[in-house]
Specification:
Mean pLDDT: 82
Shape: globular
Oligomer: single chain
Largest sheet: none
Low-confidence stretches: 293-297
Strand content: under 5%
Helix content: over 70%
Number of strands: 0
Protein backbone atom coordinates (compact mmCIF):
# COMPACT_ATOMS: atom_id res chain seq x y z
CA UNK A 1 0.00 0.00 0.00
CA UNK A 2 2.77 2.45 0.99
CA UNK A 3 4.74 1.52 -2.12
CA UNK A 4 1.71 2.14 -4.34
CA UNK A 5 1.09 5.53 -2.73
CA UNK A 6 4.72 6.47 -3.32
CA UNK A 7 4.45 5.41 -6.96
CA UNK A 8 1.29 7.48 -7.31
CA UNK A 9 3.11 10.56 -6.05
CA UNK A 10 6.03 9.89 -8.40
CA UNK A 11 3.62 9.67 -11.34
CA UNK A 12 1.93 12.84 -10.14
CA UNK A 13 5.26 14.68 -10.06
CA UNK A 14 5.94 13.52 -13.61
CA UNK A 15 2.61 14.99 -14.71
CA UNK A 16 3.48 18.34 -13.15
CA UNK A 17 6.76 18.45 -15.09
CA UNK A 18 5.20 17.24 -18.36
CA UNK A 19 2.21 19.59 -18.27
CA UNK A 20 3.97 22.49 -16.59
CA UNK A 21 6.68 22.62 -19.25
CA UNK A 22 4.02 23.02 -21.95
CA UNK A 23 3.60 26.74 -21.32
CA UNK A 24 7.30 27.53 -21.88
CA UNK A 25 7.64 25.17 -24.87
CA UNK A 26 4.56 26.72 -26.47
CA UNK A 27 6.21 30.15 -26.26
CA UNK A 28 9.08 28.85 -28.41
CA UNK A 29 6.79 27.06 -30.88
CA UNK A 30 4.57 30.12 -31.42
CA UNK A 31 7.50 31.92 -33.03
CA UNK A 32 6.99 29.69 -36.10
CA UNK A 33 3.65 27.90 -35.97
CA UNK A 34 0.02 28.89 -35.48
CA UNK A 35 -1.80 27.63 -32.37
CA UNK A 36 -3.85 25.19 -34.45
CA UNK A 37 -0.79 23.62 -36.05
CA UNK A 38 0.97 23.33 -32.72
CA UNK A 39 -2.03 21.39 -31.40
CA UNK A 40 -2.27 19.26 -34.56
CA UNK A 41 1.43 18.31 -34.62
CA UNK A 42 1.46 17.75 -30.88
CA UNK A 43 -1.53 15.39 -30.95
CA UNK A 44 -0.39 13.60 -34.12
CA UNK A 45 3.10 12.95 -32.75
CA UNK A 46 1.59 11.89 -29.42
CA UNK A 47 -0.74 9.47 -31.21
CA UNK A 48 2.12 7.96 -33.24
CA UNK A 49 4.12 7.26 -30.07
CA UNK A 50 1.16 5.65 -28.29
CA UNK A 51 0.08 3.69 -31.37
CA UNK A 52 3.55 2.16 -31.67
CA UNK A 53 3.36 1.11 -28.02
CA UNK A 54 -0.16 -0.23 -28.65
CA UNK A 55 0.98 -2.45 -31.50
CA UNK A 56 4.11 -3.59 -29.66
CA UNK A 57 1.81 -4.66 -26.84
CA UNK A 58 -0.21 -6.78 -29.28
CA UNK A 59 -3.29 -4.55 -29.14
CA UNK A 60 -5.40 -2.77 -31.74
CA UNK A 61 -7.43 0.42 -31.68
CA UNK A 62 -10.70 -0.07 -29.79
CA UNK A 63 -13.92 -1.01 -31.57
CA UNK A 64 -17.57 -0.27 -30.88
CA UNK A 65 -19.65 2.88 -31.29
CA UNK A 66 -19.96 3.50 -27.54
CA UNK A 67 -16.19 3.40 -27.08
CA UNK A 68 -15.64 5.86 -29.92
CA UNK A 69 -18.28 8.24 -28.61
CA UNK A 70 -16.36 8.38 -25.34
CA UNK A 71 -13.03 8.67 -27.16
CA UNK A 72 -14.42 11.54 -29.23
CA UNK A 73 -15.27 13.37 -26.01
CA UNK A 74 -11.75 12.68 -24.72
CA UNK A 75 -10.26 13.84 -28.02
CA UNK A 76 -12.24 17.08 -27.88
CA UNK A 77 -11.34 17.70 -24.23
CA UNK A 78 -7.69 17.27 -25.23
CA UNK A 79 -7.59 19.33 -28.44
CA UNK A 80 -9.73 22.26 -27.27
CA UNK A 81 -7.70 22.92 -24.08
CA UNK A 82 -4.46 22.48 -26.07
CA UNK A 83 -5.62 25.15 -28.53
CA UNK A 84 -6.83 27.53 -25.84
CA UNK A 85 -3.50 27.27 -24.03
CA UNK A 86 -1.54 27.85 -27.26
CA UNK A 87 -3.67 30.82 -28.26
CA UNK A 88 -3.56 32.38 -24.80
CA UNK A 89 0.20 31.98 -24.46
CA UNK A 90 0.62 34.50 -27.29
CA UNK A 91 -0.77 37.23 -25.06
CA UNK A 92 0.02 36.38 -21.44
CA UNK A 93 3.07 35.27 -19.46
CA UNK A 94 3.46 31.56 -18.76
CA UNK A 95 3.34 32.35 -15.03
CA UNK A 96 -0.13 33.86 -15.27
CA UNK A 97 -1.26 30.94 -17.42
CA UNK A 98 0.01 28.49 -14.84
CA UNK A 99 -1.73 30.28 -11.99
CA UNK A 100 -5.05 30.33 -13.84
CA UNK A 101 -4.65 26.67 -14.77
CA UNK A 102 -4.42 25.93 -11.07
CA UNK A 103 -8.17 26.42 -10.72
CA UNK A 104 -8.69 23.04 -12.45
CA UNK A 105 -9.11 20.92 -9.30
CA UNK A 106 -11.93 23.16 -8.13
CA UNK A 107 -13.85 22.34 -11.29
CA UNK A 108 -13.00 18.67 -10.87
CA UNK A 109 -14.37 18.72 -7.32
CA UNK A 110 -17.63 20.21 -8.55
CA UNK A 111 -18.12 18.03 -11.65
CA UNK A 112 -17.10 14.78 -9.93
CA UNK A 113 -19.91 15.28 -7.41
CA UNK A 114 -22.51 14.54 -10.09
CA UNK A 115 -20.82 11.55 -11.72
CA UNK A 116 -18.74 9.68 -9.12
CA UNK A 117 -20.45 8.44 -5.96
CA UNK A 118 -17.24 8.28 -3.92
CA UNK A 119 -16.46 11.95 -4.59
CA UNK A 120 -19.55 13.80 -3.41
CA UNK A 121 -19.11 17.48 -2.63
CA UNK A 122 -18.94 18.50 1.04
CA UNK A 123 -18.44 21.58 3.20
CA UNK A 124 -14.68 21.49 2.69
CA UNK A 125 -15.09 21.45 -1.07
CA UNK A 126 -17.59 24.32 -1.03
CA UNK A 127 -15.25 26.40 1.14
CA UNK A 128 -12.35 25.53 -1.12
CA UNK A 129 -14.31 26.63 -4.20
CA UNK A 130 -14.98 30.01 -2.60
CA UNK A 131 -11.33 30.50 -1.56
CA UNK A 132 -10.10 29.43 -5.00
CA UNK A 133 -12.48 31.87 -6.69
CA UNK A 134 -11.09 34.66 -4.50
CA UNK A 135 -7.60 33.71 -5.70
CA UNK A 136 -8.70 34.01 -9.33
CA UNK A 137 -10.26 37.41 -8.58
CA UNK A 138 -6.98 38.60 -7.04
CA UNK A 139 -5.13 37.61 -10.21
CA UNK A 140 -7.69 39.07 -12.62
CA UNK A 141 -8.57 42.19 -10.63
CA UNK A 142 -6.27 44.71 -12.33
CA UNK A 143 -6.77 43.18 -15.75
CA UNK A 144 -10.54 43.16 -15.35
CA UNK A 145 -10.58 46.84 -14.44
CA UNK A 146 -8.24 47.60 -17.33
CA UNK A 147 -10.34 45.55 -19.75
CA UNK A 148 -13.58 47.24 -18.79
CA UNK A 149 -11.85 50.59 -19.06
CA UNK A 150 -10.08 50.19 -22.39
CA UNK A 151 -9.05 46.82 -23.78
CA UNK A 152 -10.47 43.32 -23.45
CA UNK A 153 -7.70 41.61 -25.43
CA UNK A 154 -5.68 40.77 -22.32
CA UNK A 155 -8.59 39.45 -20.28
CA UNK A 156 -9.90 37.00 -22.89
CA UNK A 157 -6.72 34.84 -22.94
CA UNK A 158 -6.95 34.45 -19.18
CA UNK A 159 -10.59 33.36 -19.46
CA UNK A 160 -9.51 30.90 -22.17
CA UNK A 161 -6.99 29.30 -19.78
CA UNK A 162 -9.74 28.84 -17.19
CA UNK A 163 -11.94 27.18 -19.84
CA UNK A 164 -9.00 24.93 -20.75
CA UNK A 165 -8.71 23.90 -17.11
CA UNK A 166 -12.41 23.03 -17.14
CA UNK A 167 -11.84 20.90 -20.24
CA UNK A 168 -9.10 18.92 -18.53
CA UNK A 169 -11.37 18.39 -15.52
CA UNK A 170 -14.05 16.92 -17.79
CA UNK A 171 -11.47 14.71 -19.49
CA UNK A 172 -10.16 13.31 -16.19
CA UNK A 173 -13.68 12.35 -15.12
CA UNK A 174 -14.58 10.87 -18.52
CA UNK A 175 -11.50 8.64 -18.39
CA UNK A 176 -12.69 7.32 -15.03
CA UNK A 177 -16.31 6.61 -15.97
CA UNK A 178 -15.98 5.48 -19.61
CA UNK A 179 -16.17 1.77 -20.58
CA UNK A 180 -13.21 -0.30 -19.41
CA UNK A 181 -10.79 -0.59 -22.33
CA UNK A 182 -7.02 -0.76 -22.02
CA UNK A 183 -4.87 2.22 -21.08
CA UNK A 184 -3.16 2.28 -24.49
CA UNK A 185 -6.50 2.04 -26.30
CA UNK A 186 -7.94 4.97 -24.36
CA UNK A 187 -4.88 7.10 -24.96
CA UNK A 188 -4.37 6.27 -28.64
CA UNK A 189 -8.07 6.55 -29.49
CA UNK A 190 -8.48 9.92 -27.80
CA UNK A 191 -5.34 11.35 -29.40
CA UNK A 192 -6.36 10.04 -32.84
CA UNK A 193 -9.71 11.83 -32.70
CA UNK A 194 -8.08 15.01 -31.41
CA UNK A 195 -5.37 14.89 -34.09
CA UNK A 196 -7.86 14.43 -36.94
CA UNK A 197 -10.02 17.33 -35.77
CA UNK A 198 -7.00 19.60 -35.21
CA UNK A 199 -5.40 18.82 -38.58
CA UNK A 200 -8.63 19.54 -40.47
CA UNK A 201 -9.14 22.84 -38.65
CA UNK A 202 -5.48 23.83 -39.10
CA UNK A 203 -5.60 23.14 -42.84
CA UNK A 204 -8.83 25.10 -43.27
CA UNK A 205 -7.59 28.02 -41.17
CA UNK A 206 -3.86 28.29 -41.88
CA UNK A 207 -3.00 26.02 -44.82
CA UNK A 208 0.09 23.83 -44.82
CA UNK A 209 2.87 24.85 -42.40
CA UNK A 210 6.52 25.27 -43.36
CA UNK A 211 8.18 22.52 -41.36
CA UNK A 212 11.92 22.24 -40.82
CA UNK A 213 12.97 19.12 -38.96
CA UNK A 214 15.91 20.94 -37.39
CA UNK A 215 13.98 24.05 -36.41
CA UNK A 216 13.87 24.67 -32.64
CA UNK A 217 10.16 25.50 -32.80
CA UNK A 218 9.38 22.15 -34.46
CA UNK A 219 11.53 20.32 -31.93
CA UNK A 220 9.63 22.11 -29.14
CA UNK A 221 6.35 20.76 -30.52
CA UNK A 222 7.80 17.25 -30.82
CA UNK A 223 8.95 17.41 -27.20
CA UNK A 224 5.41 18.41 -26.24
CA UNK A 225 4.05 15.58 -28.36
CA UNK A 226 6.25 12.96 -26.71
CA UNK A 227 6.36 14.12 -23.09
CA UNK A 228 3.47 16.56 -22.49
CA UNK A 229 1.03 14.55 -24.62
CA UNK A 230 1.95 10.87 -25.05
CA UNK A 231 3.72 10.18 -21.77
CA UNK A 232 1.51 12.56 -19.78
CA UNK A 233 -1.58 10.95 -21.30
CA UNK A 234 -0.50 7.48 -20.24
CA UNK A 235 0.33 8.62 -16.73
CA UNK A 236 -2.87 10.65 -16.36
CA UNK A 237 -5.14 7.85 -17.62
CA UNK A 238 -3.37 5.32 -15.39
CA UNK A 239 -3.67 7.51 -12.29
CA UNK A 240 -7.32 8.30 -13.04
CA UNK A 241 -8.08 4.59 -12.92
CA UNK A 242 -6.06 3.55 -9.87
CA UNK A 243 -6.16 6.72 -7.75
CA UNK A 244 -9.19 8.62 -9.05
CA UNK A 245 -9.81 12.05 -10.60
CA UNK A 246 -9.39 13.89 -7.30
CA UNK A 247 -5.85 12.60 -6.90
CA UNK A 248 -4.96 13.40 -10.52
CA UNK A 249 -6.28 16.93 -10.05
CA UNK A 250 -3.60 17.52 -7.41
CA UNK A 251 -1.27 18.17 -10.36
CA UNK A 252 -3.02 21.50 -10.68
CA UNK A 253 -2.10 22.32 -7.08
CA UNK A 254 1.54 22.15 -8.09
CA UNK A 255 1.37 23.55 -11.62
CA UNK A 256 1.03 27.27 -10.74
CA UNK A 257 4.24 27.61 -8.69
CA UNK A 258 6.13 25.31 -11.08
CA UNK A 259 5.10 27.28 -14.18
CA UNK A 260 5.73 30.66 -12.54
CA UNK A 261 9.25 29.59 -11.53
CA UNK A 262 9.91 28.05 -14.96
CA UNK A 263 8.79 31.26 -16.68
CA UNK A 264 11.13 33.32 -14.52
CA UNK A 265 14.13 31.01 -15.06
CA UNK A 266 13.70 30.06 -18.74
CA UNK A 267 11.87 33.06 -20.24
CA UNK A 268 13.06 35.81 -17.88
CA UNK A 269 9.49 36.73 -17.02
CA UNK A 270 8.84 38.92 -14.01
CA UNK A 271 6.82 37.70 -11.06
CA UNK A 272 4.44 40.10 -9.33
CA UNK A 273 3.18 40.18 -5.77
CA UNK A 274 -0.34 39.58 -7.15
CA UNK A 275 0.82 36.33 -8.77
CA UNK A 276 2.43 35.16 -5.54
CA UNK A 277 -0.68 35.96 -3.49
CA UNK A 278 -2.95 34.37 -6.12
CA UNK A 279 -0.87 31.17 -6.13
CA UNK A 280 -1.05 30.92 -2.35
CA UNK A 281 -4.79 31.61 -2.16
CA UNK A 282 -5.63 29.17 -4.97
CA UNK A 283 -3.49 26.44 -3.40
CA UNK A 284 -5.15 27.05 -0.02
CA UNK A 285 -8.56 26.81 -1.66
CA UNK A 286 -7.71 23.56 -3.42
CA UNK A 287 -6.15 22.01 -0.32
CA UNK A 288 -9.23 22.92 1.71
CA UNK A 289 -11.55 21.53 -0.96
CA UNK A 290 -9.66 18.24 -0.98
CA UNK A 291 -8.83 18.04 2.73
CA UNK A 292 -10.88 14.93 3.53
CA UNK A 293 -9.98 13.26 0.26
CA UNK A 294 -6.29 13.81 0.87
CA UNK A 295 -6.55 12.23 4.27
CA UNK A 296 -8.12 9.17 2.72
CA UNK A 297 -5.49 8.92 0.02
Amino acid sequence: MIKQKMLNWIFLSMLVIFWGSTFALTKFALATYSPLWIVAIRLLSGFIVIYILLRLNGENLPTGIINWIWLTIIGLTASIPFFLICWSTQYIDTGIGGVLFGIGPLFTAFIAHFFIVSERINISKVLGLIIGFIGICILLNKDLIHALDSNINYLLPQIAIIIAAMGYSIQIICVRIMPDISLLQKTSGGFLVGAIISIILALLSDGLPNISLTDSAFLSVLVMGFFSTAMAGLVMFHLSKIAGPTFVSITHYLLPPYVVILGVIVLNEKISIEQIIAVLVIIIGIVVSRRKVNLSQ
